[in-house]
Amino acid sequence: MSHCILQGGYFNNTLRSWQSNTSGLTAASLIYPIFISYEHDAYDEIKSLPGQFRVGKNKVVDYLKPLIENGLKTVLLFGMVKEDHKNEKGDAIYIEGYNPVINVIKLLKETFHGLLIACDVCLCAYTDHGHCGILDNKAAIDNKASVNAIALASLIYATAGCHIIAPSDMMDGRIYKIDQLLKENSLRNKVTIMSYSAKFASCFYGPFRDAAASAPAFGDRRCYQLPPQSAGLANRSVSRDVSEGADILMVKPGMAYLDVVKEIKNKYPDYPVAVYQVSGEYAMLYHASQQGAFDIKQAVMESLHCMMRAGATVLISYFTPQVLKWLKE
Ligand code: PBG
Ligand code: ZN
After folding, report:
1. Which SMART domains match (predicted)?
2. Which distant-in-sequence residues (6+ apart) come within 8 Å of 269 by Cβ?
3. ipTM
4. pLDDT tens per residue across span 71-124
């Protein structure tokens, strides 16, 4: 039996604030997800997510600077590779020349000293079939190969300097493997594992798949993401990830799943719980407010405050830039 390294959960000021028992919604509660393009000069607005951009490594510093001046503490990086560089096994994820995330971690770390850098780890933006794991010869998930790939990608990101590894693939057993590999490489006390533990198979990811060019070429994700009607599987998945060594537990999507957030917070009061307000929630609130249904600030702040009420410690939101401003008003 290997022991649990608690230090991976509190080696930084922002991480320590997430361990607080008296948290309210502050700038430190927020994680801003950003899409890193393989085109180094990219600064392209994403059609399905108005106001969000795919940015290249030559633009990312200028993109983040004003947000950090406004109080941004944490980013969540999503990588995008060239279509030609995708293959069956998603090998581009390991290759510095193909996967822009590896260099951007180093760049952000050098440029912004206090910034906490999280990376989504998944294969779907790197495989030619667009599934989140490696497939066997019957086009079903090959668990062992998938878990090994996710752990290796995690090690590469951690070695580049990533502070928070956030595996979103939903392959069984990946937290154990990531934890082990980070321990073997003496990195576990320098890296937080934020597990997408209760991640449901949701149509609310639609705009994201367009943004990240990561929609599956065939089939769907219901064999690995959880059935939306099942709180039971969410509980079991969370308990499993706790036993395998996760530091932070995530529920995703947010708004339709706040009962799950509450249940998890009640069951694991000693763990920070992250809630991901996903792309479809962003698009809904954005478009409804554009059509005059409500005021965007009120709608977003109410949604986020309710996530905190349900038990969230950390909020992942595409509205982060606006919320940082609103928190100062
Ligand atoms: C990759 C991943 C997805 C999201 C985060 N990581 C898409 C998916 O699983 O289909 C969704 C984020 C969002 O919708 O904002 N596995
Ligand atoms: Zn995926």
Report:
1. ALAD
2. none
3. 0.98
4. 999 999 999 999 999 999 999 999 999 999 999 999 999 999 999 999 999 999
- Residue to substitute in 168, 203, 282 for testing ligand 1 pocket (most ligand atoms within 8 angstroms of CB): 168
The end-to-end CA distance of the chain, in Å, is: 51
329 C-alpha vs ligand 1 centroid, how far in Å?
31
Below-50 pLDDT ranges, the chain: none
Q: Which residues surround ligand 2, an ion (CB under 5 A)?
A: 122, 124, 132
**Residue 223 and residue 219: Cα distance in Å, rounded?**
10
Nearest to 275 by CA among 253, 302, 299, 303: 253
How large is the angle between the packed helices 174-184 and 143-160, nearest 10 degrees? 40
Q: Structure pTM?
A: 0.96
